[in-house]
Automatic annotation (TrEMBL):
<protein>
    <submittedName>
        <fullName>Alpha/beta hydrolase</fullName>
    </submittedName>
</protein>
<feature type="region of interest" description="Disordered">
    <location>
        <begin position="59"/>
        <end position="78"/>
    </location>
</feature>
<dbReference type="InterPro" id="IPR000073">
    <property type="entry name" value="AB_hydrolase_1"/>
</dbReference>
<dbReference type="InterPro" id="IPR050471">
    <property type="entry name" value="AB_hydrolase"/>
</dbReference>
<keyword id="KW-0378">Hydrolase</keyword>
<dbReference type="GO" id="GO:0016787">
    <property type="term" value="F:hydrolase activity"/>
</dbReference>
<dbReference type="InterPro" id="IPR029058">
    <property type="entry name" value="AB_hydrolase_fold"/>
</dbReference>
<dbReference type="Pfam" id="PF00561">
    <property type="entry name" value="Abhydrolase_1"/>
</dbReference>
<feature type="domain" description="AB hydrolase-1">
    <location>
        <begin position="25"/>
        <end position="172"/>
    </location>
</feature>
Length: 279
């Protein structure tokens, strides 16, 4: 694996740590969950053959500290962070963006806010529950997660959250088998556990309450690829991408694996990502 060049960018209320590899047009990778830039380690080198590949730890995660550790988090501010990286790394040309999960929510807002900066966005399973017809049910789930977090702590709340993400009637043992990670990814997951309280306590409730400008996204859908895991059909994070693809009349592109296919199937995931970025 090639060692990336490391940089730091001051933004409003935080310092972002970012990584850059390769050369060519800019491809900004926006991570979801608690993985940070390292979540793209399995695909970044291959993509760097065609692109200047940049990823980063979003504000508040591991190596991108907040000035105020208790500051509330908003999708709009995270998207502004991404736009500042685009301005820094590709000031004269629009860029491509690929993002997963909560990072895909950021990417979609970025597309609607700064379309002149974006050539193509690949959004893998953005959990935009507010676009779904049963959004009220998922608001209740998020309220249960936060209530459990306050009363019982992190791990019980994480269990409630994970149960809510699974397809109805799924056996938790089956979900564990599907999401079992390779050793390197598992070790990385252990390192990111320290970020779980921040993610579950402040990113999840804010980001999953976010309502995108669906009409504006539809108007920009010629440069948007909505993606989902081949193994995650019926799970909550799959459904918004499928719903929006049907509404916009575009193909829902299925990537290998499930919601965490980037980690469980990195070679195949990266190969398909390269194809859809250049289509």
């Amino acid at each position: 694996m090639t060692s990336p060049a490391i940089g730091h960018l001051r933004v409003d209320g935080a310092t972002l740590r970012y990584e850059v590899r390769g050369k060519g047009p800019l491809l900004l990778l926006i991570p979801g969950g608690t993985g940070g830039a390292a979540s793209f380690d399995g695909v970044a080198d291959a993509l760097a053959a065609d692109y200047t590949v940049a990823s980063y730890d979003p504000r508040g995660l591991s190596r991108s500290p907040l000035d105020d550790p208790e500051a509330p988090q908003r999708v709009e501010q995270h998207a502004d962070d991404a736009s500042r990286l685009l301005e820094l790394l590709s000031p004269d040309a629009p860029a491509r963006v690929a993002a997963c999960s909560s990072g895909a929510i950021v990417a979609l807002h970025l597309l609607t806010a700064c379309p002149e900066r974006i050539e193509r966005v690949v959004a893998h399973e953005p959990p935009l529950v507010e676009v779904l017809p049963d959004a009220a049910e998922h608001r209740a789930l998020l309220a249960r997660v936060q209530d459990t977090f306050r009363r019982e702590g992190l791990m019980p709340a994480a269990a409630v959250f994970a149960a809510g993400m699974r397809r109805p009637g799924a056996d938790p043992a089956d979900a564990k088998a599907v999401t079992e990670l390779p050793p390197q990814a598992a070790a990385r997951a252990e390192r990111t556990m320290a970020d779980m309280p921040y993610f579950l306590g402040r990113i999840v409730p804010s980001f999953m309450a976010y309502t995108p400008d669906v009409d504006r996204l539809e108007a920009l859908s010629d440069r948007l690829v909505l993606a989902a895991g081949a193994d995650s059909q019926g799970e909550l994070p799959y459904r918004p991408a499928a719903f929006l693809a049907e509404r916009f009349g575009v193909e829902l592109v299925h990537f290998p694996g499930g919601h965490t296919g980037l980690s469980t199937h990195p070679a195949e995931f990266g190969e398909l990502l390269r194809k859809v970025l250049s289509a």
